[in-house]
Queue: 2 jobs
Job 1
Amino acid sequence: MEEIINPNEYGGLMIDNQEVEAVKQVILNEKIFRYATGEESCTDLFEKDICDKFGVQYALGVNSGTSALKVALKAIGVQPKDRILISSYTFLATATAVIALGAIPIPIDFDLNYGLNLKDLENEIKKGCKAIIVVHLQGKCFDIRPIIKLKEKYGISVIEDACQAMGTKNKGKFSGTFGDLGVFSFQQNKPITCGEGGVIVTNSKEYYNIARNYADMGSVRDYYPSWDKEGALIGDNYRMNNIQSAILRVQLSKINKMQEVQIKNKEYIFKRIKIDEVKEKIINKISDDDTGINILFLTSSKEKADICIKEAKDCNIEIRRLWNKPYYLHQVMKNEKLTPQDLNKDACTFAETIANNLISISLPPTLKNDDLESISKLINQLIEEGSL
Ligand SMILES: Cc1ncc(COP(=O)(O)O)c(C=O)c1O
């Protein structure tokens, strides 16, 4: 099988000697554990880099995006049986993180502007809830300002699952910085990567302290961990190590350049395709906020989306669905009686449609002119056939 032209990978494709040297330094220093000395570690420095880049006061590196979600939920004080309203159009981890804390994920229907259907959301808030998790998409930061207004009106917390969306903005503001806490993933397919990893960002010292202790086995630490001091709790081990952060510091230093290249590539494609015929179907247009990571097309049916995926495959181009069903339609969720019907709430009909009809063409920063020409040609072919 020939290699696909546009794999769903970004920072991972840009790894070079800089990351190798950074990892080498950590190994030569013989201190991979972030708290191995009382000194400032590479992971501390990475957290400072994140604070500088995203204009937040606190950042905590952890070992995955899923861990970041669990730690963020713990930080806001989620208890067993709490209702947590989450986007129905997301990766399973958003729901399983809630379940891991004994809480109940309530799926909220999807919306293309706000990420969550505001009517469905407010209906469910009125039944009582502890928090909302809004999920930004790869290539799209939603305008969650109306959700922040609901948070203020009802006194609940908002966590942004920006696991896929590092660097995306809405009207100039970074995803992950609107709510009480934002979480990001550094798994291989994310904008920047160290294979596995995550980070939590917040402007709340209180949430940061709980998050830091919880992710460090519940201890309060100077150099040695203590479970006797005030603030200690029963925690878990979700720590990031210095090899992960060494890679991530270099990756983060490349993110602006990568995004510049991605946007240029997207502009190149837009100049070559019959843009007027599809511009209404593109949900992440080129604007100051776009990172150029992909083109998200909303097709008019599952069948049309299937045709696009198949024809692309024949040209060694990947067109894919972000998720092929709302998370609650996976059998594991049905087994746990966590579908809208089980939870006695409105159906998430738009999420079910979107999961079928929304497709993504990844635009990794390594694309060459020939690749851009092939992708443009395919898109024009799909437009002419009426599939796009
Ligand atoms: C929306 C969303 N949330 C959470 C996660 C979990 O992140 P990780 O794989 O780093 O645990 C992912 C990863 O794909 C994701 O896409």
Job 2
Amino acid sequence: MFKNMIREIEKISKQQTISIPVKADKDGCIDKECPVEDCCFGFKVNETDWANLFKDEAVYCPQCGHVAPSKSWWTKEQIKEAKKQAFNFVKYQVGNALSLGAKDFNRQPQNGFITFKLKVNGVQSRYVILPIEAQEAMEQKIVCNQCNARFSVIGAAFFCPCCGHNSVERMFDQTLEKVVSKLNITDKFKAVLDDSGQKDEAVITCQSIIETCLSDCVTAFQFFCEKKYQTPVGEKKISSQSFQRIDFGSSAWKKVLGQGYEDWITKEECSELNILFQRRHLLQHCNGIVDEKYLEKTGDQKYRLGQRIVVSKNDVEKLLFIIKMLASNIRLMTGTSSLT
Ligand SMILES: [Zn+2]
Ligand SMILES: [Zn+2]
């Protein structure tokens, strides 16, 4: 009795894997998620590239650069859905086994006044494992200029998930886009805080956001220069820090490209660039308080010793314009004018 049922249940317990397919979205991309708890960055990779280009041993998070084997990138949604389907499938198999057991039992000859019949309710006749649906397609589609892997993201993506290549140009562009978004949000943010009667907080917070924008621009430009600069053979590599000095940076580029900042922007813009870079230095190291070095390096007439500098939205917009102009000339002359 119940032989078939026991055999079926043994079969289920021995079954190692249940395969649940994952659907691609309308662009042929599948969802992935960074396994690092603090990051959890969601992105998509082209399904064909995932099969042909990506390596089993290493996939990179586009946002934080974390490296993990390809099996570690399931999204929380996919895991949840897979668990649900696997549970339901096992439930169906157990139900079927019980049903077989009941049939066996009912077939046994029974003698006597009272006869028993077993009935198992709620057993489906068949069970279909459904593929896990894809999330909506993502707007920002990227092709890695090193390995040609296609992937898409929402927001900033610094690393190629397939080869880990960090595109300097893309990183620079995305930082600048982030600055523009931060600037745009300050007015809305201020209005919300003002409405809720938090006028002081509104001014302090918005000022602080604008100051971080200035800092983001300077850091992005320094990093861009450091990575794009091809140090002449036999010379010491220039650090990103050194590109904080405008005159130094300009002459370094002149040395390798034959042109410097003064060839790409006006004299006034050069001087504004220097002032804004030095103001960022003050914010970073002197709490924004004007010191002698600042006055000496910039000749800034707007401030006297001991004052605290004020960074306006307009300052950041000006800086954005200037560093974009410089970067596009550097790209042009180093042969990478397009987005990579
Ligand atoms: Zn990550
Ligand atoms: Zn790549």
